[in-house]
Amino acid sequence: MKRSSRQGRRLPAAPARIPACRTAAPGSCLGEDGQSRFGVRLTNPRHRQPPPQPHGWFLGHAFGNTAEVSVIRICAFLLLLILVATATAHAAGTIELDAPKDWQVFQRETGSLGYVLVRGRLDHFNGSIEVRCTGEPVDGRLPAGWQTIPPDASGAFAAELSIPGGGWYALELRVIDGEKPVATARVDHVGVGEVFVVAGQSNSTNYGSGPQKPQTGMVSTFDGNTWRPADDPQPGTQDRGRGGSFLPAFGDAMARRFHVPIGVACCGAGATSVRQWLPKGARIDIPPTTTRAIKQIAPGQWECSGELYDGLLKRVRALGPHGFRALLWHQGESDAGQAPEHQIPAERYKDLLEQIIRQSRKDAGWDFPWFVAQATYHSPKDPANPEFRAAQKAVCTDGLALPGPDTDALGPGYRHGVHFNPKGLHAHGGFWAEKVGAFVEKTIEDEHARR
Predict the structure, then answer these.
(1) How many Å from the N-terminal Cα to the C-terminal Cα in the chain?
(2) Which bin fits 382, alpha (ψ -120 to 50), beta or left (φ > 0)?
(3) What angle do CA 253, 258, 263 make, to 5 degrees?
(4) Which of 10, 255, 283, 303 could lock 6 by a disulfide, CB 3.0 to 4.6 Å apart?
(5) What is the rounded distance in angstroms from the CA atom of residue 201 to the CA atom of residue 204?
(6) What does the DSSP assignment read for 378-393?
(7) Any residues with CB less than 8 A from the CB of 87 and at least 6 apart, and which?
(8) Which of 221, 278, 283, 228 is nearest to 246 (CA)?
(9) Which residues, other chains included, contact 246 with Cβ-Cβ below 8 Å and sequence gap of 6+?
């Protein structure tokens, strides 16, 4: 698969005096709802101007020569102090920061380099905006000292910093008025590493026995709008599972292998057929076992609502073009070995999955890699379905996807029913890290060879 050009992401270079900083498009880094989401104000909270008071409120003679005059004068003095403090804060400005968010991971462009988006606005602008990043990169050096970000006339600013792979970094911003900082902001956990979207059915989400936690401290998760450490249950899934997932173990294994932060974004949904992941309006003639995202429109005809597909695409778009390394697909149990009235042929499964892959790339605007696992396990008596395993493999041999792990190999000792126990979750994550890690290494080697 060829990576498409970075349409809509590589932005005009910043002035030559700041070679490690480039301006960014104002519309980038939006949440899944398409709106800019500003984080918690980090310093200098905005104050509201108190309403004007009636004329004569400060004049003692309006109230007579009583003890009330002293009280009123004290209140007036305190109010004056508040107004002065408010005016001072307004003159200095307040930084509202959209990106980066705490615990955010930015996908590396090469083995040693990525771009960190810095985007926000300064209310009551008066001064220049400067930024710096501190921490220990895996390879190379961080930009030295403070760099200037040019704001527009309204105080809005957007730039991408060229940063070596590594983290967690601390990113600081300050507003300089004259020679001193008058407003500051700080994000304590910013990573440049590897990011992955995860989709499929219950074994891609939170249905394992016992929530898991990453042990490296280097794995975070993205729900479409916010980032946080990747403790289970994973946020942003399209189901109600509250158990464990394979993602903490997967993230730990990848972090140990590459020594960079790992980001995951799970949007799977339990008990779903490939038919329920089709784009809106797709027609099928055999309904799945469950009816979510499917409605009957005529005798023998059903139509997909596109609900799950839209959820997947929103996560992809929230990360942006080339904002993640690959999508990991773990699904198939709800299509293999179903009751006759719900069973589709394995070849039909292959066709539908390929339709989803092609359409997702078209709608996203770039050919992001898909990994497809072999996943058909039901029970010790029904551990694998040869026809559907062959269909999943064929999607990869056709060149449309990359082969994911064979999780049917994780038998009863790793399971609690069809789902994984803690031992199975750890093994499942390791299986994925072996496949994906080899791909990442090969990609980095190829990039070096092209230089």
Answers:
(1) 19
(2) beta
(3) 65
(4) 10
(5) 6
(6) -BTTB---HHHHHHHH
(7) none
(8) 221
(9) 203, 204, 208, 420, 425, 426, 428, 429, 432
Residue 24 CA from chain centroid, whole number:
18
Phi and psi dihedrals of 308, rounded to 5? Answer: -70, -40
Tokens of 58: 């400060």
The identity of residue 334, as a single letter, is S
Residue 272 DSSP code: -
Cα–Cα distance measured from residue 347 to residue 349, given in angstroms and rounded to the nearest whole number: 5
Please state whether 417 falls in left (phi above 0), alpha (psi between -120 and 50) or beta.
left
Alpha-carbon distance 312 to 406, whole Å? 23
| One-letter identity of residue 236 | G
SS3 3: coil
User: Are 376 and 203 spatial neighbours (Cβ–Cβ below 8 Å)?
Assistant: no
Q: SS3 sequence, 106-153?
A: EEECCCCEEEEEEEEEEECCCCEEEEEEECCECCCCCCCCCEEECCCC
CB atoms within 10 A of CB 322: 20
Asked whether the beta carbons of 147 and 182 are under 8 A apart, the reply is no
CA distance 165 to 86: 41
Task: State how beta strands 283-284 and 301-304 pair.
Answer: antiparallel
Of the candidates 97, 191, 114, the residue with the CA atom closest to the CA atom of residue 160: 114
| Torsion angle in degrees (nearest 10) through CA of 39, 221, 100, 325 | -150
The residue among 257, 258, 236 whose CA lies nearest residue 319 is: 236
Report the distance separating Cα 294 and Cα 367, nearest Å. 27
Q: How far, in Å, CA of 361 to CA of 308, rounded?
A: 16
Predicted confidence pLDDT, tens digits, the chain (451 residues): 443 444 334 333 333 333 455 555 444 444 554 443 323 223 333 333 334 444 443 334 444 455 555 666 776 667 766 654 444 444 456 899 999 999 999 999 998 999 999 999 988 766 789 999 999 999 889 998 999 998 898 889 999 999 999 999 999 999 988 788 889 999 999 999 999 999 999 999 999 999 999 999 999 999 999 999 999 999 999 999 999 999 999 999 999 999 999 999 999 999 999 999 999 999 999 999 999 999 999 999 999 999 999 999 999 999 999 999 999 999 999 999 999 999 999 999 999 999 999 999 999 999 999 999 999 999 999 999 999 999 999 999 999 999 999 999 999 999 999 999 999 999 999 999 999 999 999 999 998 888 7
Element (H, E) at 358: helix 346-364
Contacts of 19 (CB under 8 A, 6+ apart): none
Q: Which residues pair with 174 in a beta bridge?
A: 130, 184
d(CA 451, CA 109): 14
Model confidence, pTM: 0.82
